[in-house]
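Pasting as-is:
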Amino acid sequence: MNINTKLGLLAFGAAVFGSATTLFAVKTTGHELNLSDNQIEATSSMNKVQKGQFLTVAERSAVETDFTKAAESTINGVVSIKSFAVPKGYSSSGNPFNDPFFEFFFGQPRQQQRQQPQEQKEQPLGLGSGVIISEDGYIVTNNHVIDGAERLEITLNDNRTFNATVVGTDPMTDLALIKIDADGLHSIPIGDSDALKVGEWVLAVGNPFGFTSTVTTGIVSAKARSISTGAERGRKMGIESYIQTDAAVNPGNSGGALVNLNGELIGINTAIYSQTGNYAGYSFAIPSAMMVKVMTDIKQYGTVQRAVLGITYQELVPELAKEKKVTAVNDGLYVVTVAENGAAEKAGIKVGDVITAVNGHETHNSAQLMEQLNRYRPGDKISITYYRDNKKETTNVTLLNSQGSTKIVQPVTVSALGAKFKKPTEELMKQLKLKYGVQISELSEGKLKKAGMKEGFIILDINNGRVNSADDVEKIYMSIMEADDEYDKVMFITGVYPNGKKVYYAVDLTD
């Protein structure tokens, strides 16, 4: 094939594509374009090529892929989040044994007698993104962006900075709600993630590697994607139902916005699939429908209200279908066990049923089922479509909480410890040669008193984590109580009384 032939083929491809774009534009105006018009357009384009006038990309695709309006309307609604914390380890300025218990057991090291340990300073912990969802300063981000932070610094797109407070977090969905003291902010309108279609254009807005107000584009590659089995180093996640896109997302994008071409928020960018830690073609976002439910629960109830169906199940695969003689459907959730007095049992669902839809939304896999259930609260009623003995059935289910009731679940608080805390006086800290710690100012009936602790005790660390404030105690307590394993609900506390007596406590937090 000579060069003229090759050039002609390339130009013809451009001409046909240009014709297709014109056809689309005319159709949207309510007019029809007949075959002869199409032929004329193609012929005209070929004539341009023959005269050396090539069609540009802009002429062919401007109607389909104009991202400018969506980008302009969203960059002011995405913020940069910097997290800070004081290192929890002991200072290395004196010696590696700068521990308040070291002197008690081994005496003061010689080097320590000549050098005073330097006070630990606040250090940057991480960088991420957040999305303004209300004009009065509420911001949604990922839990992993703020986890472990003692201070959060928010920078708006106009370079104003604020310190943020944490309203609530949900490690299960990796979402967090924070707030800054500001009004009249630019918030991003929330769109309908259910209306997204595979192949639809989307924009990711965030701060990758600290480059603020960065916009990347891609398409929706899949919906209701589970990444627990696909991610080589994936962390444990309670919800596995993501929007998969090929928009470039990198470290720093976490917590940022995924928007459609209308500039509507349809997801929170959360994870990437990569063997290097950087973007490798796949990124994942939490759907806006799930985000709205979690944020509403945190703001209204202080904790997420989770509904439980009361079953265990397996995804229906050909081998299982053949074994169980399921022929009416090719996929769905095969019910393995049904909890006694659970929501499913009360609705008549039995072992061997194959669940295929929730409220009309198909559930081909576990991710789709979890996505639907996590939109509801205990007490909500849903419709379950399932197959029993290869016959289609439908039943109404009243969802319950994990305790088997429809009551609102109250947030976990440190009130169960039965203590109030204060900062020890400088004189007492100097006397005991302490650089940190928090003192019990009042003690009532609760876990700490039951363990034998008395007023005046200065807590130095809990579960090997340094404690310097009541907030530190609360964070450690909350992380323990939110853990799945009941056997791990213990606080191992070390500290000292004002008379210099060092004491170790093991506080059982189980009921």
